[in-house]
Specification:
Blueprint (H helix, E strand, L loop, with lengths): L1 E3 L2 E4 L5 E5 L2 E6 L2 E7 L5 E5 L6 H9 L3 E5 L5 E5 L4 H14 L2 H29 L6 H19 L4 H19 L23 H23 L18 H24 L8 E3 L5 E3 L1 H16 L1 E3 L6 E3 L3 H14 L12
Parallel strand pairs: 2-6, 6-7
Antiparallel strand pairs: 1-2, 3-4, 4-5, 7-8, 9-10, 11-12
Helix pairs in contact: 3-4, 3-5, 3-7, 4-5, 6-7, 6-9
Amino acid sequence: MKKLLNTLFVTQPDVYLSLDGDNIVLLKEEQRLGRLPLHNLEAVVSFGYTGASPALMGYCAERNISISFLTKNGRFLARVIGSSKGNVILRKTQYRLSDSEEASTKIARNFITGKVYNQKWIVERMTREHPLRIDVDEFKTTSHLLSKILLEIRDCTNLESLRGWEGQASITYNKVFNQMILQQKEDFYFHSRSRRPPKDNVNAMLSFAYTLLANDTAAALETVGLDAYVGFMHQDRPGRASLALDVMEELRGVYADRFVLSIINKKILTEKSFYQKESGAVLMSDDARKTFLKAWQEKKQENITHPYLGEKLAWGLVPYAQALLLARHLRGDLDEYPPFLWK
């Protein structure tokens, strides 16, 4: 279990939650794993199917402590909460700000600042760690251009210009992405991003990783009471989790891209893991998808120190930390939304 920003995360999948006085008790096969006072908590997030006692849910409902249930892989199932006044106020604030170009731009700027900052960090890390295997001059030029774009992003006053600079940053970053592929270069290469459908092995994995990340982020937003479908930078569209796409922007490179590169460079998947359809779409085989998912779940368990909070947490909890920080900003507890700036 992990306590973060007054939210208790129960990450072991077979833990039952019960009530003892004013405390939450964590049980696994009738063995007590932990006991925490509830008066310090704002929310409980449980990964798994075991559930919680009616007494605990009733206690938390009366005190406006939400309990969210997710699968062990992070798919959102349900959120139990009593009086919804806090949730209503939060969502009304989200909806109001999303309708304002100025307010949306201020929030979206920080999402894209995080994205471009992390792209720059990835480029600089490759320069330091693999100077003999890449074009160092090109990577330094790319880093310099991304720094200039970061300055332009901070001065953006509307979403159109912000999207323009975000697109320019992506083009700049993508130009050196292929050089970050250090192994299996004959079978894994990146020339440009192709989405629907992915037209090569790398794009097939990127699309799958982005889908997984979007699902994780949407689940995180729902657990804090936000509407994952109403974004600030991405426009509302039926069936699209626009806010999840907003928040995951800063994690695309540092989380999903680097994960895909590790799958290639560690030879976890090979060219035999993919097949091409008549339409030209390249897809992963069922076995490859299972291997990819297993590695993704292992990645989510790796511990890091959150650059803003200074707390140790698993990679898989980063979307939840960012969702909590965004909710706190919308409630007025933070002057700005602090993006995930990886170091």
